Amino acid sequence: MADFTKFPDLALRKYGGAVIAANDESFAEREALIRPGPAAFQTHTFGAKGQIYDGWETRRRRAPGFDWAIIRLGLPGVIKGIVIDTAWFKGNYPPYASVEACAADDHQAPVELTDWVEIVPKQALKGDTAHEFEVKNPRRFTHVRLNIFPDGGVARLRVHGEVIPDPRFLTGLTIDLAALQNGATIVACSNEFYSTPANVIAPGLPRNQAEGWETARRRDDANDWLIVRLPAPGRVTIAELDTTNLLFNAPGWAAITGTDSRTTIPGKTAKWFPLLPKTRLQPDTPHRFRLDSDRKITHARLDIYPDGGLARLRLLGTLTEKAERDLTTRYTTLTGTHPEPVRFPTRRPG
């Protein structure tokens, strides 16, 4: 598996991605391209249009040209790599494919998207295979277009990359400093036996246990933990620990500490200080805690005791002024645009 797959799938449906257009979907719907999880298949399951496939499949093309689908990324960012998966498509996969990307500032309709850039040149494909293609373009993109030549079926399209949020929605506001959509990421974790810890910082609410983080059962005296790197230095004022859907496997207790570190992953010399002391948790319950610390942090460590699962972790707070400037500078560098500074009305006395 390529190194870029450690980055989140920016196009995933549960992250807000959408297949907003396709020139053809005669045999199987375009929305399947960005479904969570691997494609499923059952032999001899025929519908009105033939064998049912968990993927996007176009008709047999009898004229020159190619088929395409446009995906709006739920999490705009810098694309590190693309996975084109033709799982279960064995006699009807496209022999070639390419991927283009573009950046849109507003909510444009598909026909209004312009300035497409090729990020994966035309490549040969095989049937029933996950094809991994590294992307070197450093720009921030909001949409991708999958082109298949001349026709056929693709089960899944994965767009792995680094989330680059729009600073206009971070500056001067109380935000979730642990949110994936705001640029936070999980950099270390003790155990992810049942599900990835990245789930705890995902958008929205989990529908079931699988959409949270759950560890194996511990048989020692230690405890499980994860470390979140904030999108930029900030101060946390409220912590939310949600055990929704975890009825018999929620942690008994949890604690949160913070550190101000210049490294991507804080080492053994990092100085951690308490934000939330060891606190009892209840199963299937959203917990909210107001924090007293006003210290700046770059990383937060969540310890759960002794093991179990968590649906969501939210850390509400504000970025430092320098962090806001740095995020705006980086956004400008990656997009070539200069977002207008947010101006807040002056409050009237009384």
From TrEMBL:
Q: What is its EC number?
A: 3.5.3.4
Q: Where is the Allantoicase domain?
A: 16-163, 183-318
Q: Which UniProt keywords apply?
A: Hydrolase, Purine metabolism
Pathway listed:
Nitrogen metabolism; (S)-allantoin degradation; (S)-ureidoglycolate from allantoate (aminidohydrolase route): step 1/1
One GO biological process term: allantoin catabolic process
The entry sums up its family as follows: Belongs to the allantoicase family.
This chain's protein is named Probable allantoicase
Can you name the source organism? Acrocarpospora corrugata
